[in-house]
Design brief:
It is built from two helices and no strands. The chain is mainly α and about 190 residues long. Keywords: Coiled coil, Membrane, Transmembrane, Transmembrane helix.
Length: about 190
């Protein structure tokens, strides 16, 4: 029975040949498929390279174009701005010079005013000094006049003063005599019945 099973398990040569032929055909198809896949990959790789080169070329061209345009715009802007810049610099220089002239004029005016004020102050001080000196001279003369008048008055009044002193002494004696006489009269009146 084992032999029978082995015989049954042994493949038929025709089947084996058919299977081998089928496997060879399948291997050929697989080889063709792999060859086609490789060709497709190469084609895609080539397309990618070409697209990359084209992209680089487009980018370079765009960059060059933009750079040229930017350079042209910059040149045009500079050319257009040059007169305005010159006018601005000229106006700025004129304004600076005018401002400097105004400052110098103000300084000159201020110095002139200070000089005039200083001269006026000096004149006022001199006038005030002269006025004070005149007032001192007037006071000195007035004092001298008063002293002279007082001295002259004393010289005039001195004799009368001496006479008045003598008269005052006599009046005192008379007053004393009258007091004594009055005392005697009262004493006499007291003694009378």
């Amino acid at each position: 029975m084992l032999l029978t099973l082995l015989l049954q398990a042994t493949p038929d040569p025709a089947t084996v040949a058919a299977v081998a032929q089928a496997m060879q055909k399948q291997s050929g198809q697989t080889t063709d498929l792999l060859r086609d896949y490789g060709a497709l990959v190469n084609l895609l790789y080539t397309i990618v390279i070409v697209l990359g080169v084209m992209l680089v070329a487009v980018v370079y061209y765009s960059y060059t174009k933009v750079a040229n345009v930017a350079s042209a715009v910059e040149t045009a802007v500079k050319a257009a701005a040059a007169p305005a810049k010159e006018a601005y610099e000229k106006a700025l220089a004129e304004a600076s010079e005018k401002h400097a002239q105004e400052i110098r004029a103000n300084e000159t005016h201020a110095q002139a005013q200070m000089s005039a004020q200083a001269i006026t102050n000096q004149l006022n001080l001199e006038s005030l000094s002269k006025q004070l000196e005149a007032e001192r001279e007037d006071r000195r003369k007035l004092t001298e006049t008063a002293n002279n008048a007082y001295r002259e008055m004393n010289e005039i009044v001195a004799p009368f003063t001496h006479s008045n002193h003598a008269l005052a002494g006599r009046m005192h004696d008379v007053e004393k005599a009258l007091l004594e006489f009055g005392t005697q009269v009262r004493a006499f009146a007291t003694k009378s019945p």
